[in-house]
Amino acid sequence: MASKKKKRALITGINGQDGSYLAEFLLGENYEVFGIMRRLSVPNVENISHLVDRVKIYDGDLLDESSIVRAIQDCRPDELYNLAAQSFVKSSWHQPIFTGEATAMGVIRVLEAIRNTKPDIKFYQASSSEMYGEVEETPQTETTRFHPRSPYGVAKVFGHWTTVNYRESFDIFACSGILFNHESPRRGLEFITRKITYGVACIAEGIKTSPAVNEEKESLVKNGKIKLGNLDARRDWGYAKDYVEAMWLMLQQKKPDDYVIATGENHSIKEFVQEAFKCVGVTNWQKYVQIDKRFFRPAEVEVLQGSCAKAKRVLGWKPKTKFKELVEIMVKADIDKLRNK
Questions:
Q1: Residue 174's CATH number
Q2: Count of alpha carbons within 13 Å of 205, Cβ hemisphere only?
Q3: Do the Cβ atoms of 72 and 113 come closer than 8 Å?
Q4: pLDDT digits (tens, 9 = 90+) for 82-115
Q5: Which of 35, 215, 275, 293 yields a CA-CA distance of 20 to 30 A from 58?
Q6: Catalytic residue (choose from 67, 87, 92, 128)
């Protein structure tokens, strides 16, 4: 009896946090996995270093539709997960045009490549809770009005509605996952959660000033302090490893649709800081934190909290990892990294 043909999946941004966890998940589901990765002078493959012999990587860029077409033509995927983007909110204020080209127009380029090359591909678009911005109701659902508060949020709204339009206009199986903040030890050091956990790890290990690693080439820890912005902003934080399963489940349904993926809770950045320091036995965390106005947003998003009721009902998905557990996972991982170095 002939063995069942393996499904094939193509992931843009496979070397990112979500891309690496999704690749692991799909390999566990017996997929053939392919990835598109933007070529850099120094390759950024840390998140997928343990997978390089199990996946095939294509050089490509969301600014270059021809590279996407070539990858599709070569691997002929059943599913395509578009996880690549300029995904850092702060950078979107410094690079609004690039953010629009990559995060907004990049979605059209991928969908056009699908429509003109292999229109039976099932497509997943990574939408974002940042689309809600200045929220008009809490919790936010699939029908909550969008009011983005950054170029990144605006670009994600464009990509989201583009996905809906291609689904309705060209009968493409296209889904958007509106994922609320999801973190992990693979999160980039420029993001607030990882900045906190890495900083706490440095302080716990007696490192007064860390190497210059963030987007502005500054030390994340300087003179024994972590520089942070608005500690009162509240977010719905989940574990990225849990969330990639929801992406996959969306493409296994009979009909394409859009889903909010969230925990249903919100916690302030101050709470995240407190929990991170608790992991290393420090209660007087204020001693190690310095507020820096440079890290405040031009237009703040105060509260984000999602309802994943639809995902629970239709997909059978729910978050597995609690807030305190997530913080502990990240702090321990950063301590281990520092010790291993």
A1: 3.40.50.720
A2: 21
A3: yes
A4: 999 988 788 888 899 999 999 999 999 999 999 9
A5: 215
A6: 128
Distance CA 164, CA 146 (A): 14
Backbone angles phi, psi at 6, to 5 degrees: -70, 140
For residue 285, the model assigns a pLDDT of 94
Active-site hit among 65, 130, 183, 275:
130
The confidence score (pLDDT) of residue 214 equals: 59
The answer to whether residues 25 and 160 belong to one domain is yes
Statement to judge: residues 35 and 74 lie in one domain: yes
Active site residue 216: no
Number of domains in the chain: 2
The CA–CA distances, whole Å, from 76 to 220, 275, 300, 316 equal 43, 45, 42, 29
Residues 13 and 81 in one domain: yes
Q: What is the DSSP string of 197-252?
A: HHHHHHHHTT-SS--B-STTS-BSEETTEEEE--S--EE--EEHHHHHHHHHHHTT
Count of CB atoms within 10 A of residue 78's CB?
18
Structural domain harbouring 24: 8-184+238-264+305-320
End-to-end CA distance of the chain: 50
* Annotated active-site residue in 31, 124, 132, 152: 152
| Token digits of residue 214 | 């963030």
Residue 184 DSSP class: -
Checking if the pLDDT of 215 tops 60, the result is no
128 in catalytic set: yes
Question: Average pLDDT for residues 67-77, to the nearest whole number?
Answer: 97
1 pLDDT above the threshold of 60: no
What confidence score (pLDDT) does residue 38 get?
A: 85
Per-residue model confidence (pLDDT) at position 15: 94
Q: Which amino acid is at 241?
A: K
Q: What local confidence, expressed as pLDDT, does residue 3 receive?
A: 61
Co-location of 335 and 196 in the same domain? yes
Residue 39 has pLDDT above 90, yes or no: no
CA atoms within 13 A on the CB side of 148: 19
| 152 among known catalytic residues | yes
